[in-house]
Amino acid sequence: MPDSLFDPVILLICVIVFLVSGTIKGVLGIGLPTTAMALLTLFMEPTKAIAVVSLPIIGTNIQQFFSMPNRLRTARRYAPMGAALVATIFLTSLSITRFPESFLVTAIGIVMCIFSLHVLSGFRLPTGSGPIWQTGVGALAGICGGLSAIWSPPIAMYLLSRDVTKNEFVGACGFLFMVGSLPLAAGLIVSGVLNERNFLLSLASLAAAGIAFRFGAAFRRRLRNDTFRRIVLAAFLLMVARLILTGLGD
Prior knowledge:
Layout: H1 8-28, H2 32-40, H3 46-66, H4 71-77, H5 79-93, H6 101-121, H7 131-148, H8 152-161, H9 166-191, H10 196-218, H11 225-249
């Protein structure tokens, strides 16, 4: 893996990765960190990949949340989950450098695998909408996010299990991913993972992701999301096989 994040090849790779992941995010409302981490870890260490993906996560989720109706109602409804997510993701991200890279790669692969299999199966877990359920899901998502920059699986599973409407799903994901991305970035800065070198590459990736997100969002209502989502998730299963095998082999 190249050591320099200013390598023009690495920069080009990041632009391509975030054009792809940003488009997926725009269409589905989820998938940017999942796709980006699966691809970036082919070319750089997991901790560096987490740093690079941090700003695109913030930017695209701000775009997503503020493009949806009923923003204040969404924020109030999912405030307990957001509070638990913020606390756990910040505390967990402070400890990211204490874990071996093989652990991070395996963790990323496992959460992606669980998410993909869950959605592809069509299985729905019986869940409630109260603060206890929300706090538990938010805490679990925060632990996943602090270690791997991927906290969408528990949240998406929860929302899909409650069979919320498409607009509520996209709006809630935008809100929860937005509030979760800020403490993640803060924790990465404090831990030294998001440094000046990584910040510039993340900023360039943000530009690519933002453009791609707008493109994907424009086609969200025209495409059959269920079919498209299943294709994407099936591809994720191939990616996670590589991630898990790599992590277990180190």
